[in-house]
Amino acid sequence: MQRVDGVNGEKSLTAIIYFGDEVKQNISRGWSLEFQDEEYVVTTDQRNDKDNTVSIAAVQRFFWDMKKKGFYEEWDGSHPFSSYLDAIFTDSGYTYDSTANVAAFEKESWGLKDRLTLFNDIIDQAGVEFYVDGKVVHIVDRIGSDLSTVVRKHFNLDTAELEADNAGFATYGRGFGAYTDENDHSKGRLEVEYKSPLYDLYAPKFGAIDLSPVVDERYTIADNLLAAVKKAVDESYAYSLTLSLVDLQSAGYPYAMANAGDSITVIDESINFDDDVRIVKVTSDYDINGNRVDCSVECGNLSFASQQKTSQAAMDNIIAGKAPIPNEWLTTQVQLATNDLLSARTELQFTDQGIIAVQKDDHNKMVMLNSSGVGVSTDGGKTFKTAITADGVVADRLYGNLIQGVTFQTTEKDFIMQLSGGSMNFFNGPSMMGSLGTTFDRDTGKPNSITITNRPGYIISLNQARADGLSVPVFQIPADSTYDDSKYKLFGSLMSSIASKQSGGMWITHPSSVNISGNDGGGNQLSVYGDHVNVSGNFNVYNGSKNAVQMTRDGARATPAYETAENYVGDLGEAKTGDDSAVQVAIDPLMYDLSNTEMGYQVFITPYADTRFWVSKREDLSFTVRSDQPGASFGWEIKVHRRGFEKQRLVDTKDTYKDLEKMEGLIPNGNQNVQSYS
Question: What is this structure's pTM?
Answer without folding.
Answer: 0.40
